[in-house]
Amino acid sequence: MADDPMRRGSDKGRSVRAAIRRELAVDDSAHEGSEPAPEHAESRTIVEIDHVSLAFDMPILEDVSFQACEGETVAIVGESGTGKSTILKLILRLLVPDRGQVRIDGEDITSLTFDEALLVRQKMGMVFQGAALFDSMTVFENVAYPLREHTQMDEDEIEGRVREKLEFVDLDPDQVMEQFPAELSGGMRKRVGVARGMANNPEIMLYDEPTSGLDPLTTATITKLIMKLQRELGVTSVVVSHDIRSVFRMASKVALLHDRRISFFGTPEEMSGTDDRYLNDFLGGASA
Questions:
Q1: Contact 159/219 with Cβ under 8 angstroms?
Q2: CATH homologous superfamily for 5-123+203-287?
């Protein structure tokens, strides 16, 4: 019988899903006995995208809806150019949808003034692709930047907060605070970016390709760090990523963006167990 490329893709997708299920089982076993994420009396919705549509020269998003509850990590995945990073810009209120609402803590932010949007944005920390640190600033100055911009903290308080956040991301403040980004490895720069995003103690963390360009060991370190934020601090996170294996380890829910819409929204276990043809092919291709 002639070799069928579509069948090969489906077979690969099934093998990838089986491998991911095995990794999820290993991760669950590794977390047994660890301190659980803070429990909440009610599952409060922190970030909600409600029937959002957006077009520039052509449609980018059409009738997109999903939500992230308190303490959840929602990962947005999909092919390149499908509008994943655009969703982060909508949450940050850097863009306004043509239709629909974006709600943060139950508040529709689409009609806010510039100053009102700035206040809402202070509830969020952002980790950019490539960390996006200021090259001319030391590690200390990078992490302290949002504190100086948005708080009335004095210098002693700022130094204490910077040290606290660097320690949380497993960096030694005495070793790294006076270094410049160019002196750090890619993984260290990414961790400094996370520390800067955390500086204001935000209730929401947004990540744009947090593991892009990193080696497997450093990818695992960053993935575990995002999980640590969820487990220990109850931070609500929205992560845009192409790294399916990392996504399946860190995410409470996964949103698959396809053809301008959310074509799947559910747990990693539900995603790995589906027989949907496109999902099957996407999982196979994403691991190639």
A1: no
A2: P-loop containing nucleotide triphosphate hydrolases (3.40.50.300)
The pair of structure tokens assigned to 219 is 């990818």
Rg of the chain over Cα atoms, rounded to whole angstroms, equals 20
Residue 149 neighbours by CB distance under 10 Å:
10
Sign of the CA dihedral with 200 first, then 201, 206, and 210 last: positive
Task: Spell out the per-residue pLDDT of the chain, length 288, in tens.
Answer: 455 554 554 555 555 555 555 555 555 544 444 444 444 446 899 999 999 999 998 999 999 999 999 999 999 999 988 899 999 999 999 999 999 999 999 999 999 999 999 999 999 999 988 678 999 999 999 999 999 988 899 999 999 999 999 999 999 999 999 999 999 998 899 999 999 999 999 999 999 999 888 899 989 999 999 999 889 989 999 999 999 999 999 999 999 999 999 999 999 999 988 888 898 888 876 655
Alpha-carbon gap, residue 52 to 61, rounded angstroms: 7
pTM for the structure as a whole: 0.83
**Whether the Cβ atoms of residue 66 and residue 74 lie closer than 8 Å to each other:** yes
User: Which residues, in sequence order, are CB contacts of 231 under 8 Å at separation 6+?
Assistant: 34, 35, 36, 37
